[in-house]
Each structure stands twice: as structure tokens, then as C-alpha cells.
Design goal:
The chain is an alpha+beta fold and 366 residues long. The protein is built from nine helices and 16 strands. The longest helix has 21 residues.
Length: 366
């Protein structure tokens, strides 16, 4: 049975700045979806990560379906109305266009979708990140799907021995979708060359080479390419199928123990370590640190089990302590050097205007 898994996520209002959506806001979106799900959705799950609300749903209508996207768009609009009535900060922040045009791609919300032939047992993980951009997934998914140091299945499982195909997008090119497909292990170094530049090249999807089945879908839109100015980081979502022909759940989670440095943090303009957090985690220190949550599900004919919180384990408490130390250490450097994004990524901020003003005051000497 072909099932589509869709995730649509947006920031439409938050308490006390960029900390968390209100319970009333979450409940409004949950109520809106519940009232309109019959005949459209098989199942759904509403959650929050930082100041973003995500709608995970299953259906049989395929990716990019107008009715599914319109449902999410109108749910976010309903949430925005509640946010404005409550005086929440950034009400409707990620709804960057005035009208729905058939698909929310390009309108602001993050979107990840995949259509699959459901296996007898269909486990997958829904990842949601806040205060960072889509490149945050480059390193962990490279390691989970291409490096036997992290994914032992690449050398232990015959189903995985042929490796995986990576579909990588140049997110800086906005006229069309600029994409390349590379395979591991033969083109491993080429994949690494691209993925090292997390602000330009981003994994969009990953496929099993032995079966051709899709393993990963990631939202790749960049908000400043839509709005023409800084409106917040992209806060990407990802769907990752696990077990069988794909890496095991533990192999996908393992690379997140690095707490690798990603773009984002305060005003989306800094570098900070990605902290694996429990479901419905909030934002705090320096509008961060950048966070990622993971909800694992099993699915049968599109019906979801309750979520298993993949980072709710004593092991990850230790990792969070380590990541907090990394965050504090890089913040000690303030605005200087690699603790802040390069000028090319600050082009929509006030720093560029300040530089243009100062440039006029420079003088030249022999």
C-alpha cells in the first residue's frame, strides 16, 4: 500500500520572544486539523520544537498534494489568529506570502514528504530542528548512511552493502532547482566536498541503491530566498526510514552525539552546537542552542503508533551537558571570527548597512 508521509512546520507565534508556542496556539492547530482530517488524512501528530509547530500526517494523496498543503496552511493561519489575539511574538512569522497558491513550498513553512510502499513493519523517525538551517543534517546523515564507523550495517548487512544515493541541492541557486546525485561509497569524497559547505549544499533526499527505495526526505527551503530579507532560520524537518534495508535507529542517532557546530543561534547569525533534546523542547540560552528533536514511530496502513522520544534517555543527558559546554565556550568569543556567520550569510542584516556606511569613511594612503 502506497502511503505518503508529510511534515509541514512553521513558526506562527511564541511566548516571551522565540521560546515556545503557547498551549492555546498548539491546541488551535490540533483542533483545526482534527475537524478536517476525516476523508483526507489517515493519521496525524502535532508537536512543537522550540518556537515552531509541526504537523506530521499520513495519507494516500502523494507529495505536494494541494488539499494536504492547504489544510496545513489554513491551520497555521488559524494559529496565527490566536497568536495575534494573545500578543505572541512573531505571529505568522513563517507565513511569508499573503495567499495560498496550491502548495506551501515557497510560502515559508518547512516541508518534507515521501511516498513509500509500506513495509510489513514500517519504522521511521521524524526529526525537527530549531534555530538552524537545512545544512544541519548534512554531517549526521552523511555519517549514518555512508560511514561504517557510525553505521556498522554498511559492512554487516547484505541489504546495505551497495550503499546509498545522495541527492544534494545547491540552495543558494534560486532561479531553478539545482541538484546533483552522487553515490556512496564510490563518490564518497565528492559527497564530502559538497556537504562541508552547509550554507550552500544540502542533502534533499537519500535512496537505497539495492532497492531504489527512499530513505530520507529533508526540507531544503531557505527563508531569506523567499522573503528577500532575514526572517529567521529555516528550522528544517526530516523524515528518516530505519531498519531492514536502511540503517538501524541507533545508527541514525549515533552521529548526533557529536553536537556538531551549525549555523543559527541568536538572530540566525552565529555558530552553535546542535543539541539533541526531548520532544517539545523549548529555546533558552542566546536564543538557542540550536536544537533537534526526534520522534520515532511504527506505522501500519498509515496508522501511527504513539511517538517514542529518541533523545529521552540518560545517555543523552550526558551529551546535552557536553553540548552546553561547547555552546558556552564558543559564545565566549562573542562577535569575533568563526563564532559568527560570514558576511555572505549576513547580507540581510544591519551589519552590511553598517559596513557600507563605514566604507565611505575609509581614506587611502601611499
Amino acid at each position: 500500500m502506497k502511503i505518503t508521509i508529510s511534515v509541514l512546520k512553521a513558526d506562527v507565534g511564541s511566548i516571551g520572544g522565540h521560546l515556545k508556542p503557547s498551549l492555546a496556539l498548539i491546541e488551535e492547530i490540533r483542533k483545526f486539523i482534527a475537524e478536517r482530517a476525516r476523508g483526507l488524512l489517515i493519521d496525524y501528530y502535532i508537536s512543537s520544537t522550540g518556537d515552531d509547530i509541526a504537523i506530521l500526517c499520513t495519507h494516500t494523496r502523494g507529495p505536494g498534494d494541494q488539499k494536504i498543503h492547504q489544510l496545513a496552511w489554513e491551520a497555521f493561519q488559524a494559529g496565527t489568529t490566536v497568536a495575534r489575539k494573545s500578543g505572541l511574538y512573531g505571529a505568522g512569522q513563517d507565513l511569508l506570502k499573503d495567499a495560498f497558491s496550491g502548495n506551501v513550498r515557497g510560502l515559508g513553512p518547512a516541508v518534507a514528504e515521501m511516498e513509500i510502499d509500506e513495509r510489513e513493519s514500517e519504522p521511521f523517525i521524524f526529526f525537527a530542528a530549531d534555530k538552524t538551517d537545512p545544512g544541519a543534517y548534512n554531517l549526521p546523515f552523511y555519517l549514518a548512511f555512508a560511514d561504517p564507523m557510525y553505521c556498522s550495517g554498511l559492512i554487516l548487512s547484505p541489504k546495505m552493502s551497495q550503499g546509498f544515493k545522495f541527492r544534494i541541492i545547491d540552495v543558494s541557486f534560486t532561479e531553478k532547482t539545482k541538484v546533483i546525485e552522487l553515490v556512496a561509497p564510490e563518490e564518497l569524497y565528492d559527497i564530502a566536498v559538497l556537504l562541508r559547505d552547509t550554507e550552500k549544499y544540502v542533502i534533499e533526499s537519500i535512496y537505497s541503491r539495492s532497492t531504489g527505495n527512499q530513505a530520507v526526505a529533508i526540507s531544503t527551503q531557505r527563508l531569506h530566498n523567499i522573503a528577500g530579507k532575514y526572517t529567521g532560520k529555516d528550522d528544517p524537518v526530516a523524515i528518516v526510514r530505519v531498519q531492514g534495508e536502511f540503517p538501524a535507529t541507533g545508527e541514525v542517532l549515533a552521529p548526533f552525539n557529536i553536537g556538531h557546530y551549525v549555523a543559527g543561534f541568536m538572530r540566525g547569525s552565529h555558530i552553535g552546537p546542535l543539541m539533541p533534546c526531548r520532544l517539545n523542547a523549548t529555546i533558552s540560552y542566546f536564543d538557542g542552542p540550536p536544537v533537534v528533536t526526534g520522534a520515532a514511530f511504527s506505522m501500519k496502513e498509515g496508522k501511527l503508533t504513539e511517538p517514542a522520544d529518541v533523545f529521552d534517555h540518560p545517555y543523552w543527558d550526558t551529551i546535552r551537558t557536553s553540548v552546553a559546554q561547547k555552546a558556552s565556550e564558543i559564545r565566549r568569543q562573542g562577535f569575533c571570527g568563526p563564532s559568527m556567520l560570514p558576511i555572505s550569510e549576513l547580507e540581510y542584516g544591519g551589519v552590511v548597512e553598517k559596513l557600507n556606511q563605514l566604507e565611505k569613511r575609509f581614506t587611502y594612503t601611499d
